[in-house]
Design brief:
about 400 residues, mainly alpha, Growth Hormone, Chain: A
């Protein structure tokens, strides 16, 4: 039930992401690279500010109720954006403000969701469940942009934002149907002490600190690949929204394939070493995409990059979830999410700023090289991660 509801909602989310990027590109004009990065930054920045608090609350409160409140807020912002576009009063600051509100809702809902999933499956099947969750999100990455492209052409932007708002009803219904409830501990310490306990656990658990650093490196250096796709579609390949949605669909198809592979493998020996090798390959594919100017080759590289990205994400999340005990899950996952999700706005903002002086292909080339070097360093120098 949760998978079906999340899949439906994810289709709407990807519709909005594609449409919102194109809206920012339309509103910003010559400053589009900067505002694309800024919009991504503001949507993810609340992760840095509030997710740690959200993790403590996820260990103290009913996780399902936290998730429901998060969905209600995100649904409201989607409908607000649809109304502003429909009434033709939309301005760039409206988009940026609603991105911040959505990010705040996700900061409190994210740790609750990450903590809820392990309560629905046995521990031995957890990597499969995490990979299946990646499948629904990335299958939506294929379906969502295709629907968004058709809806944009036929009806305009407002319908895409409105459909995203409607899609939240599916995940809300799924959450209401769940009977599993989180039983918070009867005794509670002050919030700052519980948060400090989470940091202490991460610091002293072998491998967790390394996985957290790798999560930040992967998202901060890899996210600009998707952030800059509208620019590649328009400036590098000379296309429009159709070209952009096709590129997004290629990346999404690769992501679904990668998630299927991880779901098939489940828990297997040498997951840490495999993770580092995949991250090196991911960095190399980003570099090749940045320097290629043949559209079909770029599509193939995007497919491979999407597969590697999701495989890295799924294996990272699986390793963290397998290590952490349930009583600490909300706090530890919130720390992990700060690194994982927090890398996205920082990477997008820095990449968008640098691209105003250099170019999007140059930025992606640098990012891909750094990502591969980071993975190689961990592979050679950090046995705590390599041997997990």
């Amino acid at each position: 039930m949760l998978w079906i509801g999340a899949f439906t909602s994810s289709i709407g989310t990807w519709m909005q992401r594609v449409t919102q990027s194109w809206l920012v590109l339309t509103l910003a004009g010559s400053s589009s690279a900067f505002f694309l990065g800024l919009d991504s930054f503001l949507g993810e920045a609340p992760i840095l500010l509030f997710t740690l608090i959200g993790g403590v609350i996820a260990d103290r409160r009913d996780r399902r109720q936290l998730l429901l409140m998060s969905q209600y807020v995100q649904m409201a912002t989607a409908f607000a954006l649809a109304a502003l576009v429909y009434l033709d009063v939309i301005q760039i600051w409206h988009v940026l403000t609603l991105s911040v509100i959505t990010g705040v809702a996700q900061a409190f809902g994210g740790p609750a969701y990450q903590s809820l999933v392990p309560s629905l499956v046995d521990k031995q099947h957890l990597p499969n469940a995490i990979a299946l969750n990646s499948i629904q999100f990335n299958l939506a990455r294929v379906v969502g942009p295709l629907i968004a492209g058709a809806a944009l052409t036929a009806f305009g932007m407002a319908i895409c934002f409105g459909l995203n708002g409607v899609s939240f009803l599916a995940v809300i219904a799924a959450l209401l149907s769940l009977r599993i409830r989180h039983i918070p501990p009867l005794t509670r310490s002050p919030m700052y002490k519980e948060l400090r306990g989470g940091f202490s656990y991460v610091r002293h658990e072998p491998g967790l600190a390394g996985l957290t650093i790798l999560a930040f490196a992967t998202t901060s250096l890899g996210t600009p690949l998707l952030t800059f796709l509208p620019l590649f579609a328009q400036d590098v390949f000379g296309g429009g929204v159709a070209q952009y949605t096709q590129l997004m669909a290629c990346a999404g198809a690769g992501a679904v394939t990668g998630a299927l592979v991880v779901a098939w493998l489940g828990k297997f020996p040498g997951m840490g070493r495999t993770l580092l090798i995949l991250q090196m390959v991911f960095g190399a594919l980003i570099v090749l995409f940045a320097v290629t100017r043949v559209i079909w080759i770029s599509a193939v590289l995007l497919f491979g990059a999407g597969a590697c990205m999701v495989m890295v994400f799924a294996v990272l999340a699986s390793l963290v979830q397998l290590i952490v005990p349930d009583a600490m899950r909300g706090r530890v996952m919130s720390i992990y999410m700060v690194a994982f999700r927090g890398g996205m706005p920082i990477g997008s903002l820095v990449a968008g700023y640098v691209a105003t002086f250099a170019s999007a292909p140059t930025v992606l080339t640098i990012n891909g090289v750094i990502m591969s070097l980071v993975a190689a360093w961990f592979l050679l120098k950090r046995p705590a991660v390599r041997n997990i």
